[in-house]
Amino acid sequence: MTRNHRLLGLTAAAATTALLLSGCVSNEPPEEENDSDSMSADEGAAGGTANDEPGETITIGFSAPAADHGWMGAITRAALDEAEGYEDVELRQAEATNDVNMQISHIEQFINEGVDAIVLLPFDGDALTEIAIEAMEAGIPVVNVDREFSSPFAARATILGDNYGMGVSAGTYICEQLGGQSDAVVAEIQGIANLPLTQDRSEGFADALSDCGLSVSTQVSADFTIQGGETATSNLLQAEPEIDAIWNHDDDQGVGVLAAIDNAGRDEFFMVGGAGSLDVMEEIQSGDSVLQATVIYPSTQAADGIKMARLIAQSKNMSDLASAGVPRTTQLFAPVVTADNVDQYLEIGFRS
């Protein structure tokens, strides 16, 4: 992939994010411009933009996996906070679970209750596809978050992070730091190696490095846990006496990664994280860590799902689009956070 093609792809993803995160406004043109009509969309519900004004009360069912790591906990908190901001939204939260059968039964209950919309981050997208189709066939729009269903008929809208884009962003940053050092040793610490999301991240990383003449010298996998990150990194550091840069796919496991680095007394390299935890952002702010950057994988996806479900259930349109309705698929941008811009991302950071 050439640099120009990659930048075009990232620009398109950024534009999609901007459309989603800007306030939602009506497609009805104002009769005359006044202070209320020209109010910034960024003011959100408190600012009283047209789509954020209270409408018909709707009930949204929300289901997500257990909050067994920081990112997933942040996903649920953000969704609950978003729903709380709308007086016309009644949120019914299913018990968080990693049991596929239990999550299916929760969606069945939402269908039986006749909720107006469902926001679903499935523990397993394939396993939840059939029940999501049942909800759709019952006339209940489903907003699929993060882990995709295996059928396009299972969701009215899908909102995703950009795993491939994470790898591209991390690789591009490393290329910028290492310049023309074609012999640089670049290490990669994956999450769970056989997951499609991990493979997408690695593919994007390899493509970006290739664009500047670099490649991954050594690759280890952890399991998205602190202990797994520490073990994998200890093995990596023992195998590689000299490293120039490391990309760690996940900031939750990054706590263990940093512990292993500290224990080994190694600091000849710089490191890039992944996801955007507050812990990592504080490391970046400190200026005295090998951790120089992280790549955002938004923990606000389910909150965006709540906003989209509300728009769909109330037959409203997304702001800044000439077309009617809410897009079927929205993929969020994966920006790089460094000491230069960390302040603007602290608000969406999560604790590992």
TrEMBL record:
PROSITE patterns xref list: PROKAR_LIPOPROTEIN
Domain Periplasmic binding protein: 60-316
Domain of life: Bacteria
Main location: other
Annotated region (Disordered), positions in chain: 25-56
InterPro entries: Peripla_BP_I, SBP_2_dom
Keyword Membrane in record: no
The UniProt record lists the keyword Signal: yes
Pfam family, one: Peripla_BP_4
Signal peptide as annotated in the record: 1-27
Keywords associated with the record: Signal
Compartments in which it is found: Cell envelope
Family the entry assigns: Belongs to the bacterial solute-binding protein 2 family.
PANTHER family: D-ALLOSE-BINDING PERIPLASMIC PROTEIN-RELATED
Protein name per its UniProtKB record: Ribose transport system substrate-binding protein
